[in-house]
Amino acid sequence: MSAVAASEALAAPLYVAWQITNECNLACLHCIEESGPGKAFPDELDRESAMRVIDQLLEHEVPYLSFSGGEPMLHPHFFEMAERVTSHGTQLKIETNGHYLTPDNCRRLREIGVKAVQVSLDGASSATFGRMRVRGEFDKTVAGIRNLVAAGVPVEINFSPASFNVHEAARIVDLAFELGAVSFYSGKTMFTGNAVKAWHHLAVTDEQYAEYFRTLAIKRDEYRGRMRVSYHEAGLLEELRYRLQHPAALLIVLPNGLVKLINALPFVCGDLRTEPLAKVWTNFRRAWHDPRVASFVDELAVDPGRTRSLHQLVHV
Amino acid sequence: MRLAQHVKFREERFGGVLFETRSEKVYTLTPTAAAVLQELVAGRPGTDIAPSLAVRYDAPQDAIARDVQAFLEDLREKGLVED
After folding, report:
1. Residue A229 phi/psi, 5° resolution?
2. B8 three-class SS
3. How far is A299 from chain B (nearest CA, A)?
4. Residue B10: closest CA among chain A residues belongs to which residue?
């Protein structure tokens, strides 16, 4: 039994990360999707199209999906879509900003049987949280996490470091544990999306990152067996170079059904509105070898600002 | 014995995959290992898997039983199956 599965050999993706809407109640400084109020795509999938996509994923036995956004809980058919996924035994994770986690909604998520809800908590205090999560409310997010825990839904906390919150590393992990999270995850904040414009507010120095990851290593050991603390130290370029050699069996589905190779590249390899999943999956595996993909990554090494064009999609 | 709550199995042309969705770790399976998982997912008790495979592959049950036992133990240690 090997712990490596080459996507080339698989009949279908193992994981589909679906941004079900680009609409969001917040306008976070670092949002790769540049989501926000009024930012829904004009051509987002309607109910019938979304259900057809889900049915295709189930038919191909995709074992694991995530719904993200934007804020996925703002999607008008969020619960219906979630229930369709889990009713067939497929595991579903919700990635949310936590502002719609009322007791009733948390009970529904529990009844539907979502695998986990990942909540972004980019600060251990209202002040730091509010700087990153423009329009966001720290207290509301924390209350939402408590509602999830009370309902018995596993909670994962995600934290994006920035110059103004990186000093809270130890406190944020402790807070995640106090709130009852099963896991805590962090990595470097990427120079993409809104972060490109806000980089002078966000940028973390190499020294700060070194200290940050040292702290997380200590916390990982401290909470071993009680809460999983995981983090990814690689930067965007390292990650993309690795993915060029080892594409993950992961499709990124946009709100309008287009399928990207990976979030941090502008390349589209299919359209689930008009193409069957099998065709998109075949094209996904071929597209990673398209010379334009490797060239873009090479150009990023010279000019990190190339990420400004992530939303100018290129079909490969 | 059954797959752990957060583990999914899918058959593939080369055998199969086990996906542990909490850690997002994927294990590839040989055709023989995938055959054991097919039996398990079908609800066959762990003790009945080796006799079933012996019939299916027309092979000596003793040897298969040892391999199945070791494989199931490995799955258990990795938290991929539970009783």
Report:
1. -110, 115
2. strand
3. 30
4. A61
Q: List, for residues A295-316, the tens digit of each pLDDT value.
A: 999 999 898 888 887 888 999 9
A311 secondary structure, DSSP code: T
Computed from CA positions of residues A177, A231, A67, A131, in that sequence, does the dihedral angle turn out positive or negative?
Answer: positive
Burial A224-245 (b: 16+ CB within 10 A, else e): eeebbbebeeeebeebbbebbe
Residues in A touching B30 (Cβ below 8 Å): 1
Structure letter (DSSP) for residue A153: -
Interface A–B counts its CB contacts (< 8 A) at 59
* CA atoms of A234 and A212, how far apart (whole Å): 13
Q: Which of residues 34-73 of B touch A (CB under 8 A)?
A: 71
Give backbone dihedrals phi and psi of A100, rounded to 5 degrees, phi first: -115, 20
pLDDT tens track for B21-59: 888 889 999 999 999 999 999 999 888 899 999 888 888
Taking the CB of residue B82, how many other CB atoms lie within 10 A of it? 12
Global pTM reads 0.92
Query: Does B13 contact A9 at a Cβ distance shorter than 8 Å?
Result: yes
Beta strands in chain A (DSSP E): 15-19, 64-68, 91-96, 116-120, 155-159, 183-187, 228-232, 250-253, 258-260, 267-271, 314-315
Indicate yes or no: CB of B17 within 8 angstroms of CB of A64: no
Select from B12, B21, B74 the Cβ nearest to the Cβ of A1: B74
